[in-house]
Amino acid sequence: MDTRQGRDAVVEFRPDCPLCGSSPCVFHCRDECTEARTLRRIVEVGRPMVRGQYLYHAGSPFAALYTVRAGTVKTCAVTEDGEERVIGFSFPGDIVGLDAIGGSTYLTDACVLETASVGVIPFARLQPLLSEVPALQHRLLQAMSRQIAAEHEMRLALLKRTAEERFAVGLVSLSERFAGRGLSPTALRLAMSQAELGSYLGLAPETVSRLFRRFREQGWLDGTGRECELLDIGAIRAVARRQRRVPSGSSGDEALRAVGAGRSGGGS
């Protein structure tokens, strides 16, 4: 078991949710709520997983949903020419595997990027509970809706953007997602490599490296990527919303509403 700390312990905080152990759980559970008590009966939490371990592979039979309790998980797909394309990153409180509901197989690979704690929700045991507790089904549908909306907004935020704007959108999104989990919005400790971040944003690794250097020279950030401090989040937001504006009325990550609507002005 990998017991390294420091850089590998990227996104961890005080566990609140009795279901997944995370403060901003997508189910928005409280300890006394019926849904949490019901789900707690079937959630399985095993040994910590280490970087490089997979929750599942694309094409494998759909069997369970996964709640991220600590650490970071990436979802990715392999193109026809064998290139890996990162679809998204899941942090504590997120549920992985929702896109497989309704099908018989997983649509992507899900890989752990650092030492992580993951809860397993066997779908065969979840299904009867959805009928037993209708509110639980409602929460699950809400979680699916939020995930779909956030992914859609991210794609819109990146559409027809320059490399610099895409990079800024990615930093703002990470900043806001971290802030929503009680972490610093400016001191980003990232589990993903520059190549993985670039794949997610549609940028080559060398382009990401060049943009980190450019933003450092501008005085907007400091660090090399894994340890990144945003010194002028206002300036980065200004770049992120330079052209396209994401509709502010839609649901999803606060990061994307901030990018599109510009509600946060030029400050921190």
Q: Hey, roughly how much beta strand do the residues contain?
A: 15-25%
How many E strands?
11
CATH superfamily of the largest domain: Jelly Rolls
Mean pLDDT: 81
Cα-atom Rg, whole angstroms?
A: 18 Å
Task: Please describe the topology of this protein.
Layout: H1 34-40, E1 44-45, E2 54-56, E3 64-70, E4 73-78, E5 84-90, E6 95-96, E7 109-112, E8 117-122, H2 123-132, H3 134-158, H4 163-179, E9 187-189, H5 194-201, H6 205-218, E10 221-223, E11 227-230, H7 233-240, H8 254-261
Antiparallel strand pairs: 1-8, 2-7, 3-6, 3-8, 4-5, 4-7, 9-11, 10-11
Description of the structure:
This protein folds into two domains: 6-122, Sandwich (Jelly Rolls), CATH 2.60.120; 159-261, Winged helix-like DNA-binding domain superfamily/Winged helix DNA-binding domain (Arc Repressor Mutant, subunit A), CATH 1.10.10.10. The chain has a four-stranded antiparallel sheet. A four-stranded antiparallel sheet has the order 2-7-4-5. Helix content is 36%, strand content 18%. Helix 3 packs parallel to helix 8. Strand 10 (221-223) and strand 11 (227-230) form a beta hairpin. It has 268 residues and is an alpha+beta fold. It has eight helices and eleven strands. The longest helix has 25 residues, at 134-158.
